[in-house]
Amino acid sequence: MHFVISREALLKPLQTVCGVVERRQTLPVLSNVLMALKDSELSLTGTDLEVELVARVTVDEAIQPGEITVPARKLLDICKSLADQSAVELKLADERLTLKSGRSRFTLATLPATEFPNIEEEPDTFSLGLAQSKLRELLENTSFAMAQQDVRYYLNGMLFEVASESLRVVATDGHRLAMETLPIENGADEVQQLILPRKGIMELARLLADDGGDIDLTFGQNHIRARVPAITFTSKLVDGKFPDYNRVLPKGGNKIVIGNCQELRDAFARASILSNEKHRGVKVLLSNGELKILANNPEQEEAEEIVSVDYEGEALEIGFNVSYLIDVLSTLTSNRVRITLSDPNSSALLEAEEGSEALYVVMPMRL
């Protein structure tokens, strides 16, 4: 393998694929990136066996085709450190990859391309295309509610529910839930539910651009594949059953509070400073025209915030994890939020007053 490419052209796809490469690996080859040159197209592949990214770029001069794997981080760090606008020559000889640029020269160890694991091909079940900006918005509005290291492994990811005319994404960690629905055309004939792992969601969100055109999503039995120009993303699906989110959605809430998103978020953020660092609980007292937030901690310190809201009805006292409320209020893009409550033991339903299909559920806390 022997080719010449500009530093900028190599750096961008390299940064993309290095995102999935873990620093500490049980298999040495998983710390490497697979480089394959065919004709004048160079493909770079990184994987952690759960998520795979392939980025393609055209080289300036293709001298000899071939494929090899090289240490991902070292190659990335070298490319970052080279001068802008410089040309980079890479040549494979005697199982070593030599990189030359100007007066700089580096020799990297390699491992054979045959050792690099490939996520196996499988028959596709259905595909759909949608705007990258729309999918990015969906993921940004909901991904914060995914669990992180829950023993219920199916919560450490996000549900994609594809129907004939809608794509719905749902994330929950058992204490809160985020859900948004996007109208689509030509979805699945029957409703399909698939769970993408947390890392897959994070990497997919990183690829999406607001002005990047469309993305093609292909769903298989065990994998999802996404294609954007010059990049192919593949992620394994989580094998498990997602909880029935419809049972979690509060029904029959008769107390409706409408308030300013920014004012409420700022008030909760200030009150949270003196909340218990362990369970982050705050008390919310609702009465006509106002919402009072009370926080205290084991040091006997207290915070009180009063925010004017649109509400008429019975008084209500209810406890929440303040971090969950701040997350939702930080995600909503509308000026005003609608909060639906029923009693101190029932979940709160939060949504934008207008302009968004996203729904958020936060369970109460006993304080």
Summarize this entry quickly:
With 367 residues, the chain is an alpha+beta fold. The chain is 18% helix and 43% strand. The strands form 4 sheets. It has an 8-stranded antiparallel β-sheet with strand order 6-2-3-4-17-16-15-10. The chain has an 8-stranded antiparallel β-sheet with strand order 14-11-12-13-25-24-23-18. The chain has a 5-stranded antiparallel β-sheet with strand order 5-1-7-8-9.
Please provide a written account of the structure.
Helix 1 (7-18) packs antiparallel against helix 2 and helix 5 (261-272) packs antiparallel against helix 6. Helix content is 18%, strand content 43%. The protein has helices at 7-18, 72-81, 132-142, 198-207, 261-272, 322-331, and strands spanning 2-6, 32-38, 41-47, 51-58, 61-64, 66-71, 87-93, 96-101, 104-109, 124-131, 157-162, 166-172, 176-183, 192-197, 214-220, 223-228, 231-236, 255-260, 281-287, 290-296, 302-308, 316-321, 336-341, 348-352, 359-362. It is built from 6 helices and 25 strands. It is of the alpha+beta class and 367 residues long. The model has no long low-confidence stretch (mean pLDDT 93). Strand 15 (214-220) and strand 16 (223-228) form a beta hairpin. The relative contact order is 0.11. It folds into 3 domains: 2-115, DNA Polymerase III, subunit A, domain 2 (DNA Polymerase III, Chain A, domain 2); 124-246, DNA Polymerase III, subunit A, domain 2 (DNA Polymerase III, Chain A, domain 2), CATH 3.10.150; 249-362, DNA Polymerase III, subunit A, domain 2 (DNA Polymerase III, Chain A, domain 2). Strands 6-2-3-4-17-16-15-10 form an 8-stranded antiparallel β-sheet. An 8-stranded antiparallel β-sheet has the order 14-11-12-13-25-24-23-18. Strands 5-1-7-8-9 form a 5-stranded antiparallel β-sheet.
